[in-house]
Amino acid sequence: MNIRLRSCLSAGRYLVIGAATSAASILALVVLLYVLVLCPFGVGIPALPHALRLTRHPAGLERRRAARELGEPIPEPYRNGSPLTDPATFRDLAWLVAHAATGLLLAALAIGLPLGGLRQLAIAGFWWTMPGVGSSLGFAVTSWPLAALCALVGLAFIAATLWLPGLARLQARAAQALLSSGQDAALADRVAELTASRAAALEAHGAELRRIERDLHDGTQARIAAVVLQLGVAGQLYDNDPAKARGLLVKAQDTATDALAELRTVVRSIYPPLLAERGLDGAVKALAARCPTPVAVRVLREGRHPAAVDAAAYFIVAEMLTNATKHADATEIAVTLDSSDDTLLIEIRDDGRGGADESRGSGLAGIRKRVESFDGTVTLSSPPGGPTVLRVELPCGS
After folding, report:
1. Is pTM, for the whole model, over 0.90?
2. Do 345 and 338 contact (CB within 8 A), yes or no?
3. 374 by DSSP, 3-state: which?
4. Which of 146, 215, 277, 295 lies 20 to 30 angstroms, CA to CA, from 288?
């Protein structure tokens, strides 16, 4: 009984507050109608986008109220751009018209039913103290039979009050249906999001290819060319000056060794051999062991991931360890890896000075692009004074 009473009180409060949003809807429609009337004269055309944005205020308030009533979030469906071309604007207008027509009526029911029921019961019980008092049905109560009929009317009003939670949910569902993103809009947003992530992936891939080409051209290729030159000169000097030729051969060997080391570095930057040998967990622990700052690696759940996901995770951890060591002056770093069936979670926390900002070229922007290319998410928390916490989720399901 107490639960039913609380439910009725909550529903009544929701419907009564709906009277305020209904009044705001009426006001917004009046303003919009006034602007439309002025449009043929040219005066209302510049004000029309602003008037349409005005309608978003009562819609936004109702969206939050309905989300609380239903226990389900209702995200804003608006896109960046003119409200004149936003499909959500027309959904807002449809809600404004519907809510302006029904909001005040439902609020009147929420107030009138319980108060009317109590009034009828009071009349039925005390009619003899004020003979001839009028009932809600329009007849005067002058006898006990009429008082009994008046009491039945009051009980009917009280019983009808029990329907208020249903009316409140009906109003909230209507707001949800009209004010949330439609399936077409959600699909369009998803297509735009995937298009952006694909563009980011292509850009990251292109930058990676340019980096590899630059490393090979400026480093390995130049050293191999020097080896060829040194071997050629040594071959010419071999008969006339064997000692000098031997020195050139030793120098060519050293140069070839350096070229091999650089080539291995380039190969590791494409796909570290440690990943193939030890897996992601072992490769991250090897990174931690080489880091000059103490790093604690915690693996909550191990899992198998696609090679591309392992490589992305490896380079994300490597970049963040470098940032924490060089830029954040961290003394301790903690890396957490957690794998589920379809997601790899990476959390990197350091006790540095904080204040990390993607716009300052700290490598965070590159991390975000790398993650977005997998349709993953990046969450960064780095208040001044620290700590800095980077949380990355990489989808890895099939």
Report:
1. no
2. yes
3. coil
4. 215
| Tokens encoding 8 | 């009725």
Residue 276 confidence (pLDDT) above 50: yes
pLDDT band at 398 (very low <50, low <70, confident <90, very high): very low
Cα diameter, the chain = 141
- Residues 32 and 51: beta-carbon distance below 8 Å: yes
Q: Which two tokens stand for residue 231?
A: 């071997």
CA angle 116, 120, 125 (to 5 degrees): 150
Give whole-number Cα distances, 266 to 202, 212, 251, 320, in Å. Answer: 20, 7, 23, 20
- In the three-class reduction of DSSP (H, G, I as helix; E, B as strand; rest coil), residue 75 is classed as coil
What pLDDT is attached to residue 58? 85
| Residue 337 pLDDT > 80 | yes
Which ranges of the chain would DSSP assign to H, the alpha helix? Answer: 2-38, 48-54, 56-70, 87-126, 144-161, 164-179, 183-215, 221-237, 242-270, 273-290, 307-326, 364-372
The answer to whether residues 118 and 154 touch, using CB atoms and an 8 Å cutoff, is yes
Nearest in space to 296 (alpha carbons), one of 338, 337, 356, 353: 337
**Residues 31-37: contacts with CB within 8 Å, 24+ apart?**
32/93
Say if CB 95 and CB 62 are below 8 A apart: yes
Q: CA–CA separation, 365 vs 2, rounded Å?
A: 55
Of 228, 211, 231, nearest to 219 by C-alpha is 211
Query: What are φ and ψ of residue 346, in 5° steps?
Result: -125, 125
Answer whether residue 305 shows pLDDT above 80: no
pLDDT value at residue 54? 81
Strand partners, 339: 344
Whole-number Å distance between alpha carbons of 292 and 295: 9
pLDDT digits (tens, 9 = 90+) for 26-57: 888 888 888 888 887 777 778 788 888 888 88
Name the residue with tokens 């060089």: 326
pLDDT above 80: residue 397: no
Residues 390 and 377: their CA atoms lie apart, in Å, by 11
Q: How far apart are the first and last CA of the chain?
A: 50
Phi, psi of 231 (to 5 degrees): -65, -40
